[in-house]
Amino acid sequence: MIKTFTLLFATVFCLCFTTRAQETMQSRNCATDEVNALLGQNQPEYKNALQEVEKAAALYLQNRSGQRTNSLGDTIPVVFHVLYNTVQQNISDLQIQSQLDVLNEDFNRRNPDASNTPAAFQSVAGNPQVYFCLASLDPEGRPTNGITRTQTSQTSFEFTENKMKFTAQGGHDAWDRNLYLNIWICNLANNILGFAQFPGGPANTDGVVLFYRTVGRTPLNPFPGPYNRGRTGTHEVGHWLGLRHIWGEADKSCTDSDFITDTPNQDGQSSGCPAFPRISCNNGPAGDMFMNYMDYTNDACMNLFTVGQVERMNAVLHTSRAALLQSNTCSNVLNADFRAIPDAIFPGQTTDFFYYSNGRQPATFSWVFEGGTPRTSTQKDPQDIHYDAPGAYTVTLTVTDARGSDTETKIGYLKVTENELQLYPNPADRILTIGAPADQKLTEVGIFNSIGQLIRKYPAEERTLTVEVRDLPKGLYVVRGITNRNENFGQLLLIFH
């Protein structure tokens, strides 16, 4: 369902409440508005961050034909932080592994109950092709099993305080969110089932929190149902990747939206396991999609994401959470990845380089800076590397330890720009990258043919934009870019095939 609605105050966390009677959870509820209001009060800049997340996702979906994708799927490294006050709360490795199994099934449409999706919704059932792996390296490059365990004096944790996410408050500090999906497992107070943070929120609280009784599936999850099949984890990771509840936020109104076109409008949350079809908001004949992972039915009654939900999650993963796709923390290998900050400068300026620790911790570092001064360095994070002449310069890093070495060469990585539009490669064959001057961002790019006709137009929100040109006929073109300073730049482009 899709309607006009501002997302500036969209859900940041999903907080799922349960009613326990004799340790059996009976129903789910959600305190989205309260939590979102709390975050807005504590983090006023969050509204701007949400805007940027939405812009980036929208641009990705609009320009996705020019985006590099992995047809085999994307992998997200996961670390589980178990916080326990009693022996019962210190759940087993096997229970945690079963949660990982559920995530990998549900996010690849390999869940055994996929066949339970009603025929009316089979055509819109989507496959995110997202995989989850237990981290084998910690943030310092040391071996780990992807599970931390912390005995705490906290008998329970309040969602309003986020103490479970801070070691000094009886929890466990988040690992680098650019390398891991952090999932905290603990005893949540006030009958909360779990919650997740949307992209755009603060780094030190980013991730998912699960009530320990909901983790994994029976029989490895030994606790009573109906939320003991790992679908709370699926639901919360959906939020973490940008999905809203299927009915939106305004319960029982038929006026809200989840911003997904292929989920039927429904009047509010579902519970239990309804009989199909259940009609609301004039959405017959198929009615509510109550078996969607982003509704509130029992674990055993959930079985699908839609194609539209898949597109949104992938857009968020490849934009706001894209750093995770470069993480090497599930493989115990040496990795020579690095970053320059900034990676575009003007002639005569300097930049700083940083080793990106997403692999085994190296013992030595060997840098080579084409066109830079100094030209080489053995420091871990070389600073103040000077460049005089315009160009796109290659940087190479080799790291070694007692077991081997790895080399990363980034061709044309460091851009030293004049105050003009850059095109590379030029001439171009398949892929073209358009770059603004070092201190500006592109807002719009147009490609014109030799007689001045506009044949391509792209919105943008970054310094560089990469597009496909393989389908353009061989010939001479003009590329024009408008920047955030409202400056208009043009450059000739030659296409050859």
Automatic annotation (TrEMBL):
Database matches in InterPro entries: Ig-like_fold, MetalloPept_cat_dom_sf, Peptidase_M43, PKD/Chitinase_dom, PKD_dom, PKD_dom_sf, Secre_tail
Gene3D superfamilies for the chain: Collagenase (Catalytic Domain) (3.40.390.10), Immunoglobulins (2.60.40.10)
Stated family: Belongs to the peptidase M43B family.
Matching SUPFAM superfamilies: Metalloproteases ('zincins'), catalytic domain (SSF55486), PKD domain (SSF49299)
Keywords annotated in UniProt: Disulfide bond, Hydrolase, Metal-binding, Metalloprotease, Protease, Signal, Zinc
Single GO MF annotation: metallopeptidase activity
Protein name per the record: M43 family zinc metalloprotease
Annotated signal sequence range: 1-21
Pfam families tied to this protein: Peptidase_M43, PKD_4, Por_Secre_tail
Domain of life: Bacteria
Residues in PKD domain copies: 354-409
SMART domains: PKD
